[in-house]
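Why do we bother with holo predictions? Because pocket geometry can differ from the apo form. Keep that in mind while you read this record for ribulose-5-phosphate.
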Amino acid sequence: MGIQITPSILNADLSRLADEVARIPSADWVHVDVMDNHFVPNLTLGLPVVEALSKHASQPLDAHLMIEDADRWAPAYAEAGCGSVTFHAEAAKAPVRLAREIRAQGARASMALKPATPIEPYEALLAELDMVLIMTVEPGFGGQKFLDLCLPKLRTARELVRKHGLETWLQVDGGVSLETIERCAEAGADVFVAGSAVYSAEDPDAMVQALKATAEAAAT
Ligand SMILES: O=C(CO)[C@H](O)[C@H](O)COP(=O)(O)O
Ligand SMILES: [Fe+2]
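The structure, written out:
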């Protein structure tokens, strides 16, 4: 698939979501951060808003569920029309069953790891996943500083995907900008979430294109 950019709408104008998404036609996906004020200390939006937005976005939605009861809710986001659904490893009680349920609903299944969660215990699970999200900030808020300490885990994830001959995408999320995206691409990421970098830019779509070009140059 090559390099893909999935802007997060967390720092967009939430009162005009469909318009905000229309400002980024070059994006491959639209990243939607769902927070429940339990798994993370912040509350954003849920299933009805995601369902409504999926009907107005020209790109598929990439739902990032920062919620405690992932086993119960994640398949519903696939059913609501998301193209990709990411649950957190720290929240899922039965990740294999959950990944299979998401895929059965026709969406890509993805699992996220917080900065302190290692990838090695999940090696056998990789074949069940279409994507792994390596968080590069503590989940909960946009606009945080990129954590370089997450890069070795990204390299390990890339080695494991190669070792098993898989096509699992590796996504990074948190503090991704023109300044940090090269490091992520060099370490093996191929899907890049960028929230504040895109929506604080004067021309958000030009920023999406610049991020993509920078990651492509670093990955080759
Ligand atoms: O999952 C997230 C936070 O938990 C967001 O997707 C992420 O922080 C995007 O925002 P930014 O690019 O500003 O860091
Ligand atoms: Fe996110």
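Residues 11 and 196 are 6 Å apart (CA to CA).
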